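Researcher: Please generate the 3D structure of the following complex. Treat every line as part of one assembly.
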Amino acid sequence: MAASPFASRSPSMTVASPNTAIRLKASAAQSGSGSAGDVKTSSQPNGELTEQLNDSVAQNYDRGKKLGEGTYAVVYQGFRRDTATTVAIKKIKVNADYKDGLAMDAIREVKYLQELSHPNVIALHDVFSKHENLHLVLEFLPGGDLEMLIRDQNVQYGAADIKAWMGMLARGVWFCHENYVLHRDIKPNNLLIAADGEVKLADFGLARSFADPYLNMTHQVITRWYRPPELLYGARQYSGAVDVWSMGMVFAELLLRVPFVAGNTDLDQISKICEAFGTPTEDNWPGVTKLPYYIETDSSQIIPTSGRDFFSRQFPTAGPVGADLLMSMCTLDPRKRITAVQALRHKWWTIDPQPTKNEDLPQKRHAEKKMAEDMSRRGGEVNDGPFKNAARQLDFGGR
Amino acid sequence: MIEDDIYRTSSQFRVWSYTEQSLLSLRATTNVIASDRVRTAIRRAREAQQSATPSATGTPQPGSDVESKASDEKPIDCLTPEEELVFVRYYCESLLELGDEYKPPLPTTVRATAIQYLRRFYLTNSPMTYHPKKIMATALFVATKTDNYYMSLRSFAEAIPGNPSPDDVVAPEFLLMQGLRFTFDVRHPFRGLEGGIMELSAIAQGQGQTTPLLPHQTAESLKQGILSIAPPPTPSSSISDRIGRAHNATRELLKTAAQMTDVYFLYTPSQIWLSALLLSDRPLAEYYLETKLGGPITSSPANPDPSNPLNEIRTKLFKVLSDCAALLQAYTPLSADAAQIKNLKRIAKKHYKCQNPEGANMSQKRDSAPSRAVSSAAATDSGQVTSESETERLAKKRKLEEQKQNGPKDMFGGELVPDRTKGQ
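Model: Done. Output below.
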């Protein structure tokens, strides 16, 4: 069990769990019997088995310096005692405004990260409670995030680097979808970078599993600039295609080094999408006019769907094949949009230039502050500063 | 990547899957630890009363007096692991009904998740320490949050008979989550069943999917096959009627027997629904398996072909499904059986005398700030003495609460066996 947290990812440990329990019990009985002087714990000498298990997890870690603090959490550097590995310890803040117990974003993050184990998804090594606070032990990712690299004018990168980053992103998204999990907040500052250059999908505060057919989900997800048209039109039933659109927006942003469609409001976002990719109509997207927030466009104003030429012209760095992949990620009709697994089979990955090896990718060093900033933010929240006009409301009540 | 690989990374497999033997020893360990703590705590409470009674405070303590006289010097008889299990099962069965109190009724998966939370929690916690009637509402509330059926705490609490305050419902939340090892995902057999039923319906309509493992299969041969299997346990008018009946019977087993037994700890979701389908319509279930693996699915095939790997899989599968089905079949609801009710009442009486007086304190972990401040101040002021009188105060409080909750309207605190079963 989690008494051996890294090993807890290994199935063989499951069978061993009762032994762990018995071992803990033996040590507890020892400390319980002859310890009259142990005043501090006298009222609860060792606790139920469940508490012993929790404490044995907590004792594996030392907490180091505070790296950052946001609305949602405080992030510390931490160390695993037996292996001397560096980790990030995220202490979830108790939300004073939320009276209904543990907040939904914390529940979602813990629920899904416990299930997902993949090189391109941030690893959750352990969870424990200490002094009534929830602590997540996460993979330490000192390389900052993709947003940092995109914005930093001193960083030079090219098509091969973008191909490497996009490949890692696509594998992470594919894995989530393969496990029936929608991320619902893909954007450059949720794509953290490990010391070895590997890109990790992080912040699962808005994630959920695919709904059963005909059941509704909330459309108030994904940070606006990365939100697909179906969500802007209020669709309540959607698929992994929403994450693929966001992935396309990240791809475009990596190529342009500025957000590609950056609306100031939801309405503005729709009109910017129409300008860039064409106006959604019954012809290019059957059924779109039935969506709750669909806005009729005067026939004289209809912009035709952008073809290959547009993408090749707009994104020369990607080359014609890369532009084709981007175009299929940005297809207006979610049913015609490429899926994550189809994206991985696209020929762009195999043609030249080959993706840059991780160790040769442009990197930020010692960007753990940026990691902490990203980890301590609430899901769907946007950093203040140059992009604060993108702040948006979240509705957790939808279902 | 095959489905099995994905399942092996799930927390249900990593943390919550056991062998029968390991499950047994885990429960025994939990019980030993909790029993020790119960005895220590009750002894401590008695000593505190004895030293407090002659003191100058002069406050009459009718509640604790009665308790100390009744149980003075008697050895404390704790629940056995088997008794704990029956006691918890009663509250799991109540949880199933609690879901009907909502409008619309809570989805089956939310209730099933809550029941599994309760069962997982009591693998490493004892009902002697934490009363299941307090934890069950919390488990259901947490399940609404983790299963995307979110409602506000207030409206959730309002629907519960006995009208617990929202604070009562949410107070043990953190404790529960710790007992769940902070794993919230429960893999149910319901979706798998729906998929299997869809496949069977497709086969019946001549649109079945063939498998490359069995090259002779065609959609037409599959359809002819399903039409020529042995008749179902209860007569049906058509193949689609038969599939429909099997679907309903299996779903019912998954909602009840699968929730109340150890099958989630011992088997995978697909093993569970296939076993339940075997119990509902054996020829149909066997035919379904044969379309995937060839047949027959038996413990010892007549002329085994050692070169065919499917043989070994079939034999293995037969054993696993038979074992799981036996466990499901052995289940009867507590309320349906007079002997079980009698036993349950005996356990409830015994439980009343061996509750940990400090347990009530523990379930208030995420209590409102003021009361936490008070208790921590008391603890630091004068150390152990205060904490013992605190214990005593809590024991009294617990007793009062219990008396209060024994009112007729409270389905958690009232008589353990609800009215509908009294006539039996």
